[in-house]
């Protein structure tokens, strides 16, 4: 049930005679944080009074007079300047909680919309190892898919693998020049990974070498700019101008500094390669490696037999590699239609754009010129190669024909915003506009230093080693010998491992999902796995506490239902009510996830419920309750809390353990 919505609907009705914008005022109802102000508070009287030119308390009184709430709330109170405080009736609350018992959906309704929602997520470029940057799309997309599916939507998940790009040119080149067919056949995944790193390292080296003079030039220009500014003397009478000049000088100096640090990192990359005899020899022997790799990719796309053969041979290994990560993360897809799947459709897309007059040739490249963008969208390069955008247009058309979706969500890094803006703009003109297209964008994972997370050698941190680290950290926290002493029967090693894995992997996901997707966040494993704080460990631990109580009481939910049937459900402590109200808000949290495609709404809800549950535990005895009737209600709350926490975590892709 969406209780806030119910209240808003009731206020909406009551506000109709008072204003022509009842909806916007009705939306000003929120759960309170302090029970002193009731359970919900409406602060609509103050803004409405301005519109009506009447004292806010009078307006509040008129609204209270008109609103019909007596079946769900006590008589509303008007507080302070005109706040309307609402207290949910105990009888109503008890009835709602009784309704949740035995309900596997925990009170969450189902949509009757049947048109599919396609969710494009994870979509890594394979052939190179997955790194920390792949966490976000995978975890956000998976939790959106789980949540929407639970809400009753027909979801179709599609992993739009980058399985056709330059990275294959890289491993094909690597295999041809450095590969040992026997080693690759025997141990393909690490070997291909090694080849990828070796060739990519050389490409990066080439790029760095080529960039150094440009950066040096840029530093000189920036220094000259700074010096020029410093030599200016501002008019002493004009304080504003002086301040402005100071600011410009500081910003010019900052630019010099940032270019210098870029230069330093390029130089250290170059020095790294040159200091190592093998890579130095490689670099000398493969001076045009960047161009050669592009040629290998182009040959693959043109259907060159040898390269196509190699691609077919390598692709399954690359997929094995990422599937290992997906298994560990418990992420599945309905489809994995990679870029290669669309290759044969790309020519048709370009032709269609041309025949509809949307594309034209400029400098030999086929471009779509779009209003509101500086640069056109190139769909075919001069050399005949198609682009990322061409593939996305083909993919869009295929999805519309094949799935007839109502929505397509693209869970992709914010840095691709312009790409998607253009795709969506072209889609409109392409006659593909009936579908709602959403770029579910997200920010960057940063290291402790606030910069994009890298290893010491400057490469991106591999996802698997990160997961291992998280599980190790989790083990030290939850399997600490002192904690383990408390378990009876003792926790065997296999169970400890299961707990560490569930807690460690859950921690990474939960921490990621806990930040609003559009913000960047700093990656800190210690904080993520801690037992206290805004962590999944805390929520998982709260869940385990519910299970411990039920086990000690020797009651399953069906037994609790029988107790309630005998004693009824009623509240004897404020902490019970607060917990009950929180349990009632589950659906609201899930709908908020859908509304903004933002799983952090569910994370916040679960943390809040776990905290409220902890307060309930501190103040209400369950096993030693004052009477059997009181115990019945408390056990019902414990059982429901356990299920809501478990289900909520599951919708985030996070597991639970029965004890920890
Ligand atoms: N493979 C792309 C990358 O790693 C992401 C693909 C996202 N999906 C899409 N339909 N463009 O940047």
Write a structural description.
InterPro entries: aa-tRNA-synth_I_CS, Arg-tRNA-ligase, Arg-tRNA-synth_N, Arg-tRNA-synth_N_sf, ArgRS_core, DALR_anticod-bd, Rossmann-like_a/b/a_fold, tRNAsynth_Ia_anticodon-bd. Monomer. GO terms for molecular function: arginine-tRNA ligase activity; ATP binding. Its EC number is 6.1.1.19. It is a single chain. This protein has four domains: 86 residues, Arginyl tRNA synthetase N-terminal domain (Gyrase A, domain 2); 175 residues, HUPs (Rossmann fold), CATH 3.40.50.620; 142 residues; 189 residues, Isoleucyl-tRNA Synthetase, Domain 1 (Orthogonal Bundle). It is 59% helix and 8% strand. It is built from 26 helices and 13 strands. Helix 21 packs across helix 25. The model has no long low-confidence stretch (mean pLDDT 94). The site of arginine has 10 residues, from helix 15 and strand 10.
Assigned CATH architecture of the largest domain? Orthogonal Bundle
Largest sheet: 4 strands, antiparallel
For this structure, what is the CATH class of the largest domain? Mainly Alpha
Mean pLDDT: 94
Number of domains: 4
How much helicity do the residues have?
55-70%
Q: How much of the sequence is in beta strands?
A: 5-15%
Low-confidence stretches: none
Number of strands: 13
Question: What hetero molecules are bound to the protein chains?
Answer: arginine
Subunit structure: Monomer.
Protein name: Arginine--tRNA ligase
EC number: 6.1.1.19
Domain DALR anticodon binding: 539-660
Q: What are the main properties of this structure?
A:
about 650 residues; alpha/beta; Gyrase A, domain 2; Rossmann fold; 4-stranded antiparallel β-sheet; 4-stranded parallel β-sheet; 13 strands; binds arginine; arginine-tRNA ligase activity; Arginine--tRNA ligase; nucleotide-binding; coiled coil; DALR_anticod-bd
